[in-house]
Recover the amino acids of this structure.
């Protein structure tokens, strides 16, 4: 009885944890997506002070909302470690980690694996390309897996099988991404309880049809460019919240009618690299 009680306490704690990485060394020095290419072409530098301020703002929101924010040390020369969402996905105390597509991010894996080991997580490492919760999100008892730009179909399929093996029993719904501007699923799709936002132009025709049939709500070009889908939906018993960098009046009104409180946390510095609030977040 004591062992089971302890296990429940540990699992409860893990579910409320979020892994983040401070933007100490965050900058845009290479281009692996169009946003980064534009930043370099226009010679726009990251404002380090502002980036830290925006990252701290997100961290403080999580703490206020009752989450335990845990940190991995940043590594000089690996600026994208700040986007912890892409390192893997955590399920029942195990971290499932795949291969980054681009050589610039591959060295991050060593440090994330080390962190998970030191914090008593089991590790499942697959050889296929899979970029974590950037390309895999849970919605309506399904695993929505994005492939076609970063993660491969074989990668998300293998990870989904581990979810079933570990007792989650969810069905994989693969959706194909077709626009490099929306290189990860979480840049163009956001589950929100029974609802979801998505940007149709980022998906193949078949995938658009699937998401519409499931009840996802389409957004327009302007909302997509502001990275609205890369917001963070929170429902942890303290009221439903949605953290957004920017939101149109139309969607603010629509979400508030659904009982969702909007919390703004601007991410202009991270958007120079193509990321926003969700990219900076890994739920454990």
């Amino acid at each position: 009885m004591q062992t089971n009680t302890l296990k429940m306490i540990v699992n409860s704690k893990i579910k409320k944890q979020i892994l983040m990485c401070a933007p100490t060394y965050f900058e845009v020095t290479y281009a692996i997506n169009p946003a980064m290419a534009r930043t370099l072409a226009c010679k726009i530098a990251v404002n380090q002070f502002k980036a830290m301020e925006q990252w701290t703002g997100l961290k403080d929101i999580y703490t206020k909302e009752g989450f335990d924010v845990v940190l991995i040390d940043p590594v000089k020369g690996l600026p994208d470690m700040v986007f912890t969402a892409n390192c893997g996905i955590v399920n029942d105390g195990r971290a499932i980690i795949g291969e980054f597509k681009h050589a610039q991010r591959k060295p991050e894996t060593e440090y994330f694996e080390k962190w998970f080991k030191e914090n008593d997580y089991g590790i499942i490492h697959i050889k296929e390309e899979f970029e974590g919760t950037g390309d895999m999100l849970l919605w309506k008892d399904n695993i929505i897996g994005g492939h076609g730009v970063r993660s491969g179909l074989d990668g998300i399929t293998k990870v989904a099988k581990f979810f079933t093996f570990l007792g989650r029993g969810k069905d994989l719904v693969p959706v194909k991404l077709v626009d490099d501007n929306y290189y990860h699923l979480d840049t163009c799709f956001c589950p929100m309880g029974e609802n979801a936002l998505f940007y149709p132009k980022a998906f193949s025709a078949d995938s658009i049809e699937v998401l519409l049939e499931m009840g996802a709500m389409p957004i327009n070009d302007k909302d997509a460019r502001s990275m609205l889908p890369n917001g963070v939906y929170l429902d942890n018993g303290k009221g439903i919240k949605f953290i957004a960098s920017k939101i149109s009046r139309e969607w603010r009104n629509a979400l508030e009618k659904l009982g969702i409180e909007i919390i703004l946390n601007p991410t202009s510095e991270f958007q120079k690299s193509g990321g926003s609030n969700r990219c900076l977040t890994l739920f454990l």
